[in-house]
Amino acid sequence: MSRKMKNKVLEQLKIERIAAEGKCVGHHEGKVVFVANVAPGDVVDVRVTKGRSSFLEAEAIKIHEYSSDRVSPFCSHFGVCGGCKWQHISYELQMTYKRQQVIDQFERIAKVPLPQVMPIIGSEKTQYYRNKLDFTFSNNRWLTREEIDSGETFERNALGFHVPKRFDKIIDIDHCYLQGNISNDVRNELGAFALKEGLGYYDIINQKGLLRNLIIRTTLDEQSMVIVQFGADDQEGIDKTMEFLHQRFPEITALMYIINLKKNETFQDLEVHTYAGKDYIEETMEGLKFKIGPKSFYQTNSSQAYELYKVAREFADLSGNEVVYDLYTGTGTIANFVAKDAKQVIGIEYVEPAIVDAKENAIRNNIDNTLFYAGDMKDVLDDTFVSNHQKADVIITDPPRAGMHEDVVNMLLKLEAEKIVYVSCNPATQARDVALLAEKYDVIKIQPVDMFPQTYHVENVVLLKIKEQE
Ligand SMILES: C[S@@+](CC[C@H](N)C(=O)[O-])C[C@H]1O[C@@H](n2cnc3c(N)ncnc32)[C@H](O)[C@@H]1O
């Protein structure tokens, strides 16, 4: 019956609150209606896009009353681009909603006794806070309804971001407020150069075209890595593009390219060529220098990464005698950050080049009490591994959005470390894992940290302590 609701228009729906994944919630005839891109307090007409027996999903088609909490979005791409969907909500309220998301997820999913969730640590920078952006070249630029209705002819090549849920449509970006430094200039000037020179923008449907993808990484002290992915093995076109970037932006400290003839844009398995400069950039944190290679993960908001790591360090509360396991260590940033306060830190991570960087980061910073291993966590962290190493007193874990594999959670229950510091970018999967860990652990502290202003995403750190034996 509910499927019949599809495409039905519901009028004058009052938007009540924010739910998970940044969607807002209203009610229609007792049923929950999830609506994207609105704000609590709005009154809207919506069109149902999905009908289920317990809920409806809908898109706003007309706003009758704007919430008094709304603010004017600062970006001209707002509403089309999927990047900063919460620009219409003041930063103060964004932080309130993010903390509430953590409370809701833990109450709904973890269902264990909880301490009060601490006030969220806000980000000093609410614009230009990202250190990495990934732009796509496409010969299939997304046209807005107004552009189509205008009857004018538009340039169809685009360099920018994917339209949400559309793999084949790209929004041409002329200014992005997420990344500062040379990011906007490099993207715009490279785009203009490619158009002038007739260098082909990628055709995703037919899998051809020279220019495919552009990655820009920056550091707090203005180092920059620019990586161009080419969709054709055309050395003349590649040299022309790279030489333009090299001449026009001599300040790029790592200028690189990849020839990617595969169907997808991931390049972990491809060779990265250094055209000019170094093959890495370095971020500095509390006197430590972290080397970041083109294939390595680094937290995308460098200033807030420091705030996050300080929380993790405070929760770990190390005295210098502990063995710490840093699970999902990436380039070993947390491991090396807490090493001076621990007896030994052991980091485990899936991506091999990241582990190479982690080891090198330890050496460069004269840290001699860290060990790093590459491999899938559920395979590496087993009984043999544990018997070959010292038992962990403290475990710091920072898994990807999917959370920890059940085998890993079971291993943690078996290891019985005194404390677990669980860092997560997805409170829902974190709450799920905490529910399992609650068999042996109490939740002592919950600290949300905002790494991604203008989005609904929230980072969260939980301190778990082993239950007292009865
Ligand atoms: C959220 S990042 C955390 C990185 C690091 N703690 C930091 O702060 O920079 C998650 C990391 O987990 C790694 N990862 C994802 N799945 C994994 C798995 N199954 N086994 C081991 N590592 C994994 C990713 O490569 C990534 O580096």
UniProtKB/TrEMBL annotation:
SUPFAM superfamilies: Nucleic acid-binding proteins, S-adenosyl-L-methionine-dependent methyltransferases. PROSITE patterns: SAM_MT_RNA_M5U (PS51687), TRAM (PS50926), TRMA_1 (PS01230), TRMA_2 (PS01231). Keywords: Methyltransferase, S-adenosyl-L-methionine, Transferase. Gene3D superfamilies: 2.40.50.1070, Nucleic acid-binding proteins (2.40.50.140), Vaccinia Virus protein VP39 (3.40.50.150). GO terms for biological process: rRNA base methylation. Residues 3-62 form the TRAM domain. It holds the Pfam family TRAM. S-adenosyl-L-methionine binds at Q299, Y328, E349, D398. InterPro entries: MeTrfase_TrmA_AS (IPR030390), MeTrfase_TrmA_CS (IPR030391), NA-bd_OB-fold (IPR012340), SAM-dependent_MTases_sf (IPR029063), TRAM_dom (IPR002792), U5_MeTrfase_fam (IPR010280). The active site is at C425. GO terms for molecular function: rRNA (uridine-C5-)-methyltransferase activity. Belongs to the class I-like SAM-binding methyltransferase superfamily. RNA M5U methyltransferase family. This is RNA methyltransferase, TrmA family. It comes from Cyclobacterium marinum (strain ATCC 25205 / DSM 745 / LMG 13164 / NCIMB 1802) (Flectobacillus marinus).
